[in-house]
Design a protein that fits this description.
The chain is mainly alpha-helical. It has helices at residues 2-36, 83-90, 98-103, 128-131, 154-167, 170-186; strands at 42-48, 54-60, 108-110, 139-141. It has one domain (2-186). The radius of gyration is 16 Å and the shape is globular. The two termini are 30 Å apart.
């Protein structure tokens, strides 16, 4: 019942509350992004969602326009990141537009983070076990993010995602929510120290958050 109905109901209610509460701050962030760097305030990126369906995930743009041409990996010394971008990345405020992804049904508040369409590898290269992470909506935060966030090797991330799918309950989601709040407030594990590892000869590139 929770997985198939109540979870979605909670997502809709929280998304509406989040948009109402964060509406003015989001407008101010969008204005700051626009004033500092030419280009759109929002960055849209194709990700893999439930059942492997591709959707566009929204974030506030934290890098200069066209930065992806220089590679998708970035760290805290990347000159492509704007001054405003460094602040909203460090505080995770760049993720606020994903409230709209939740409202539209692309995402949930809690779930596996949606990977890029090509990284760590294309959908058709996921094993049957790994594809199980796509049985639920991806989340703004998830079980993996409470176990290291950006420095967890990709095979381990997927194992944690599948574990979440197998053990999904309201109480687990509440636990993840509180752990995430703690990590955001302390900025724990929120700094890239190098490209996220992909073993078994998979290309090692950074996917972003």
């Amino acid at each position: 019942m929770y997985r198939h109905f109540f979870k979605r109901f909670i997502d809709i209610v929280l998304a509406l509350i989040g948009i109402a509460v964060a509406g003015i701050p989001m407008l101010l962030i969008a204005l700051c992004v626009k004033l500092e760097s030419p280009g759109p305030a929002l960055f849209k990126q194709e990700r893999l969602g439930k059942n492997g369906k591709v959707f566009k995930m929204y974030k506030f743009r934290s890098m200069c326009v066209g930065a992806e041409k220089g590679g998708v990996y970035s760290d805290n010394k990347d000159t492509r990141v704007t001054r405003v971008g460094r602040i909203i990345r460090a505080t995770s405020l760049d993720e606020l537009p994903q409230f709209f992804n939740v409202l539209l049904g692309h995402m949930s508040f809690i779930g596996p983070r949606p990977p890029l369409t090509y990284h760590p590898w294309p959908l058709e290269e996921y094993s049957d076990f790994q594809r199980r992470m796509f049985e639920v909506r991806p989340g703004i935060t998830g079980w993996t993010q409470t176990h290291g966030r950006k420095d967890v090797e990709w095979h381990r991330r997927i194992e944690l995602n599948v574990w979440y799918v197998d053990h999904l309950t309201l109480w687990l989601d509440i636990k993840i929510l509180f752990l995430t709040v703690f990590k955001v407030l302390t900025a724990a594990d929120n700094e890239n120290k190098g490209a996220t590892l992909v073993v078994e000869d998979k290309q090692s590139v950074e996917s972003g958050k």
